[in-house]
């Protein structure tokens, strides 16, 4: 039917919480601390769409390799204006790659990364 949500385990909960809420502007729906797991779970939305569960766990293993490894390659966010979003994120201190053109659609996009080096794509709709 559709993707319900994406779960992300972060290495530093406060850093990632700030990144996804203050830098990217996602809205907090719910914040829970699960004592038995020593884990925070932060439910985030873009507008009215529930999209990300941000988890913290004690000593999570690092990501094994760059995005070409099997598994999740990157998260892609739709934006109205790729140039404006890139400038906004650069102004907030992110290192953003140059804008590329999708060879099949002709749409513009660029990549940056979250605090744990998870690749994030911003794609113009």
From TrEMBL:
Protein name (record): Glyoxylase I family protein
Keyword Metal-binding tagged: yes
Presence of the UniProt keyword Metal-binding in the record: yes
Keywords, ordered alphabetically: Metal-binding
Residue ranges annotated for the VOC domain, each copy included: 2-125
Pfam families: Glyoxalase
Recorded GO MF terms: metal ion binding
Matches recorded under InterPro entries: Fosfomycin_Res_Enzymes, Glyas_Bleomycin-R_OHBP_Dase, Glyas_Fos-R_dOase_dom, VOC_core, YwkD-like_dom
């Amino acid at each position: 039917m559709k993707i319900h949500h994406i779960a992300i385990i972060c290495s530093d909960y406060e850093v990632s919480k700030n990144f996804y809420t203050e830098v990217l502007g996602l809205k907090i729906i719910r914040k829970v601390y699960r004592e038995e797991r020593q884990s925070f779970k932060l439910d985030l939305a873009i507008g009215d769409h529930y999209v990300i569960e941000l988890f913290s766990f004690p000593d999570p293993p690092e990501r094994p390799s760059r995005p070409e490894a099997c598994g999740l390659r990157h998260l892609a966010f739709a934006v109205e204006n790729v140039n404006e979003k890139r400038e906004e994120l650069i102004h907030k201190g992110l290192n953003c790659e140059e804008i590329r053109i999708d060879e099949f659609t002709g749409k513009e996009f660029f990549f940056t990364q979250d605090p744990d080096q998870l690749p994030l794509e911003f794609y113009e709709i």
